[in-house]
Design a protein that fits this description.
Number of helices: 10
Strand content: 15-25%
Structural class: alpha+beta
Oligomer: single chain
Shape: globular
Number of domains: 2
Helix content: 40-55%
Radius of gyration: 25 Å
Largest sheet: 7 strands, antiparallel
Strand order of the largest sheet: 2-6-7-1-5-4-3
Length: 375
């Protein structure tokens, strides 16, 4: 199995300049190779592959000697990324045609492979990288014994901070826990994060709305500055830092909440919602949906439960969890404005609590059916 750990880097001025140079070189090679592929296909319908572009990279280095200053493995990896993008375009539904990378709008990053210790993480608070040498880093988590470094991706956020995402390879020895009654169901709440089947709700702090006034003020200041000027760029950096701070607040809350649930319960049942569709403007609640980060929360829950040998069960989004009575099973048509569920059997409870209980019960049924087929 593979696991990535992201470390914050504190490079020197020379190391930061080298990283920026690698970002630019990888972007240049990617765009050149994409142009070769398009031209070859338009000329005589020839489809170039990775090996063809790798041969072209050798010639490209002769024409542009400054490419030799960058990590050679990183340049090759940019060609592999392009090859993967073309494979996805032909094989994966919904994948678009590869686009040229822009200096302004694309994520600044490059990937290098560990070859006989060229990449190393030290407990002395540094990470060894090809050509960059030992880069000061915050090693907040050390790899376990038996973990081998496969690759690392160096990136720079919009606020100017550098990170290294180190990919470790290891043998999985996770032992699944026995299915128990320690189970919980979670129902999505647009005005919070979730309601669980025990009646507890996570309100979910609205970090973007809380920082919206500060963000709007910074945007107004940017409007009054000349585009491209030094003050304009400084103000852009301030706006990026506000965005990053809001994102970090949200991630911190989601990580703490998902870790608490993964440690407490053996089985977690959720709905397989389409968060992208729910965040659409036509839904009417897109900003709140994006602000609570429920999709990221589910992804965190899934991998944390899997790492602990526990169970993450997805109930189909078309299952009428909000319409079904959790006591007698009757189905009632409810509008979004109906927040209290009332049934002829005498049940009266919060609509989201009723849905969470139904999700828990349906998730357990699906889990037992799966194990009966295997057994």
């Amino acid at each position: 199995m593979n696991k990535a750990i992201k470390y914050r880097l504190y490079p020197t001025k020379e190391q930061a300049e080298y990283f920026l140079k690698c970002f630019g070189c990888c972007r240049f090679v990617y765009n050149q190779a994409l142009n070769w592929r398009i031209m070859a296909y338009n000329a005589d319908r020839t489809c170039l592959n990775y090996n063809d572009t790798a041969y072209g990279l050798v010639a490209l280095k002769r024409i542009y000697p400054w490419l030799k200053e960058a990590d050679s493995i990183a340049l090759q990896q940019s060609l592999r990324h392009l090859d993967t993008a073309f494979s996805n375009f032909f094989k994966v539904k919904g994948a678009g045609f590869p686009k040229f990378k822009s200096r302004k709008h694309n994520r600044r990053s490059y990937t290098t492979i560990n070859q006989k210790g060229t990449v190393a993480v030290s407990e002395d608070k540094y990470i060894k990288l090809p050509k960059a040498g030992k880069v000061k880093a915050r090693i907040h988590r050390s790899p376990e014994s038996g973990w081998n470094i496969k690759s690392t991706t160096i990136s720079m956020d919009s606020d100017g901070k550098f990170y290294a995402s180190v990919l470790y390879e290891y043998e999985s020895i996770t032992i699944p826990v026995a299915i128990s009654n320690n189970v919980i169901g979670l129902d999505y709440k647009s005005n919070g994060l979730y309601m669980d089947s025990n009646g507890n709700s996570h309100t979910g702090h609205k970090y973007y709305r809380a920082g919206q006034a500060k963000f709007a003020k910074a945007q107004r200041k940017l409007k009054n500055k000349a585009i491209g000027s030094s003050n304009y760029k400084k103000q852009q950096l301030k706006i990026s830092k506000i965005h990053k701070h809001i994102s970090n607040q949200r991630l911190d809350d989601l990580h703490k909440t998902s870790t608490k649930i993964a440690n407490q319960y053996d089985v977690v049942c959720v709905e397989s919602l389409n968060m992208k569709a729910m965040s659409n403007k036509s839904f009417g609640n897109g900003k709140a949906t994006m602000d609570n980060g429920y999709g990221m929360f589910l992804n965190m829950l899934e991998y944390k439960l899997n790492n602990r040998g526990k169970y993450f069960v997805k109930v189909d989004k078309w299952y009428p969890s909000s319409q079904t009575c959790c006591e007698c099973g009757r189905i009632h048509k409810l509008s979004l404005n109906d927040r209290i569920y009332r049934c002829e059997c005498g049940l009266t409870m919060d609509r989201d609590l009723n849905a969470a209980i139904n999700i828990r019960n349906e998730g357990l049924n699906l889990l037992y059916e799966q194990y009966q087929k295997v057994g």
